[in-house]
Design brief:
With 317 residues, the protein is an alpha/beta fold. It folds into two domains: 160 residues, D-Maltodextrin-Binding Protein, domain 2 (3-Layer(aba) Sandwich), CATH 3.40.190; 114 residues, D-Maltodextrin-Binding Protein, domain 2 (3-Layer(aba) Sandwich). Helix content is 44%, strand content 18%. It has eleven helices and ten strands. A five-stranded mixed β-sheet has the order 2-1-3-10-4, with helices on both faces. Helix 2 links the parallel strand 1 and strand 2.
Amino acid sequence: MRIALVLALACVAGAVCAQPAAWPAKTVRIVAPFAPGGSADTLGRLVAMRLADSFKQSIIVENRPGAGGVVGSEFVAKAPPDGYTLVVSGVASHVIAPAASKVPFDPLRDFTHIVLFGGPPVVLVVGAEVPARDLKEFLALARAKPLSYGSPGNGTQGHLIGELLKQASGIELTHVPYKGASLAVADVVAGHLPASSNTLATAGAMIRAGKLRALALTAPRRLADYPDVPTFAELSYPELVATTWFSLSGPAGMPPEIVHKLNAEVRRALQSPELRERLRLDGAEPNDLDAAAFTEFVRAELARWTPIVRASSARSE
């Protein structure tokens, strides 16, 4: 009996010792697959700070830019699915890039989609000297003479919204791709380009300063901070409702308990006054989807944007 008791206690002790340490037991790395200073990087760092406070563990953000978010996303797709390597995913890297060209991962099969942050709408802006006070006048101007518009780059959502507007309204616009939204906005302000299609996060400061005129937003409804800017939907373009969303994902096969824990903490963080204010400044609203609903959201976005990207012959940069 003594031998049996000793063996039983040894088995119990061994089972306890074999249990994995509670997650997170070490530093968690969040890869931002774009350059520092952009929306993905900023949102990733804000969320990382909140998670570090909640989990009492170091959460670092590492920038791995390249190929429209593909480089950093591929790195995470190949990482161990233990919850210690995550990526700031989004419409650019996980929807538009796979639709525009061949990428080294499947945006659904190779990832665990954890939680949706949200993101800013796209806004069509013109320079102060452009003789178009609203979208109707801009479309009339485009029908009367050739016009061009800038975007953050070929295959970006700003580009796709411009292409959708062309299709829906029947106008011709020449697309001028830039290496980033801020460069396109700067050229419109300087009068080198009549219009641009960018996120509100990039153009907002210049709109508020009166240096750009906002003609329409892709938000589903008017924003409190921009009450005079109509939505495309209310101007009879319901297909032009979209957000440049960002999110948190990990490698495929992550443990459900870690996914649930991250989803709950990020959703709680998004309701904090600090993050709500930061999102509000970009014209974004926090989302409240569980992991399963968010995965279905990604699936629906792929179904929506893939034919649009391919029809536009866009190529992700």
